[in-house]
Specification:
This protein is 65% helix and 0% strand. By secondary structure, the chain is an all-alpha fold. The chain has one domain (3-79): Tn5 transposase, domain 1 (Serum Albumin, Chain A, Domain 1, Orthogonal Bundle), CATH 1.10.246.40. It comes from Clostridium kluyveri.
Length: 88
């Protein structure tokens, strides 16, 4: 699966009331996909992208549980395809 496809599948349905937050989340996730250990400036590769990411995480409407909600749902959907799932 292509990076952008995976990111869209995992995070595109995040339940933010403002669709711009969903779009920003997918951009951020795509930036970190190849190098999850990167700092925000390293992953974003531009001043504008870095500032947008900091603004995203500073937004009062952005909560960790909301970010993880669509990712969790996608994980559950994948697990349903198997009789046995090993979790570590």
């Amino acid at each position: 699966m292509h990076t952008n496809d995976w990111v869209l599948q995992e995070f595109n349905d995040a339940p933010f009331a403002d669709n711009r937050l969903n779009k920003r989340l997918t951009k951020i996730a795509n930036s970190f996909y190849g190098n999850p250990e990167s700092s925000i400036p390293q992953a974003c590769k531009s001043y504008a992208g870095t500032q947008a990411t900091y603004r995203f995480f500073s937004n009062n409407r952005v909560k960790p549980e909301v970010i993880l909600m669509s990712h969790r749902e996608q994980t559950i959907d994948r697990m349903r395809k198997y009789d046995t799932v090993f979790a570590i």
